[in-house]
Amino acid sequence: MQDSVSPSGFRIGTVQLVGAGPGDPDLLTLRAARLIMSTGLIVHDGLVSPEILSMARPGARLVSVAKARSRHTMAQDAINALLVREALAGNDVVRLKGGDPFIFGRGGEEAEACRAAGVPVQVVPGITSALGASAAAQIPLTHRDSASIVSFVAGQCKGLAEQNWAGLAGRGRTLVIFMGVANATDIAEKLMADGLAPETPVAVIENATRTEMRVLRGPLAGLPDLVQEQRVRSPALIVIGEVAAAPDETLCDIALEATQ
Ligand code: SAH
Which of 84, 221, 255, 259 lies in the 20 to 30 Å Cα band around 176? Predict the structure, then answer.
């Protein structure tokens, strides 16, 4: 790619918005791995695993922009400004994000900020945690028998109560909730109030693809207790729908049908 040059003749760096996947370095794309190993500056989230950061070349600058929940907006402006400032100073930047940069990753906002400042930006997709976690837990998000619609929802959104989730969950549908652990009680109550059966299977996948990964299962009505009793911590995903049932239960159903 040809270098971008400012009107006054200085080279402008490129910002690469790179998905780091759910944690296991083996799940990086080849392009992400190549960029991580070659760049001089990595600006990363708290979700990027230490194993992946340790792939950076010796002497590379690693800048953490892990965000506190309560300071989201301010912090995001500061991150945008940092990316633009570095690129305008001539530095290529790898902006490394957990999962995929465009799935609840604020990658869209960062790309806009770069474009507005005349900074070239490229996007390298990553395996979103929804896909990494479901693969690791062997939960097929779609299944010919039980799910032909999948929805990704942010569980910490303002206005959660006003959303109508009735169309997103239920028979034939899988709902994957990001950032939902802190609001698990509200989410379960809301879904049941919108008509979802209390016994709908739920799986909570914590630290997916990392050594400390846990997969917890139960019915929707038991989600608040499950999260509290098992002390589920972020990062965790909540998968709701028939596909989230324990594999053994599915096997039992098949065995029962076969004997009938
Ligand atoms: N861009 C990311 C999502 C960022 S939002 C992606 O594509 O995955 C942060 C949320 O992602 C967390 O609150 C959690 O719900 C989910 N998450 C990210 N990494 C995870 C992991 N390793 N295990 C479980 N959930 C994860």
Answer: 255
